[in-house]
What does this fold into?
Amino acid sequence: MSDCLFCKIVAGEIPAEKLYEDDDTLAFWDIAPQAPKHFLVIPKKHIVGPSDLIKEDDALAGKLFRIAAKVAAEQDIDSFRVVVNDGAEAGQVVFHMHMHILGGRPMNWPPG
Ligand code: AMP
Ligand code: ZN
It folds into this structure.
């Protein structure tokens, strides 16, 4: 998607502080952190959000959790919140699926 911010990060057209990268996933620090440690894990493939997933994405979607935990461990984040916003009312602003990983402070429940 030529006008997608995260596709541009994947393509290297916009810089990001990368934490992990492989053939189909990328993790990088969030530019506006909501916790002392806040990074994003994305599929390199343009998927809008969970509602856009197809059966062929099952392995990729599951992999995002494994990469999230791996990067969290590497960053000494031993407890973390995973957030995926799907749709504008849920708070999604970037319409390329991303998993927020937040750690380094106590988390509230219910979330706002
Ligand atoms: P969401 O509201 O779930 O769509 O989250 C989008 C996230 O992307 C927000 O937490 C933003 O701070 C983050 N973000 C936006 N632009 C960038 C960027 N260039 N690099 C890193 N994170 C970004
Ligand atoms: Zn995209």
User: Anything to note?
Assistant: Strands lie at 18-21, 25-29, 37-43, 80-83, 99-103. The pocket of zinc ion (ligand 2) is lined by residues 1, 4, 6-7, 46, 96 (CB under 6 Å). The mean pLDDT is 97.
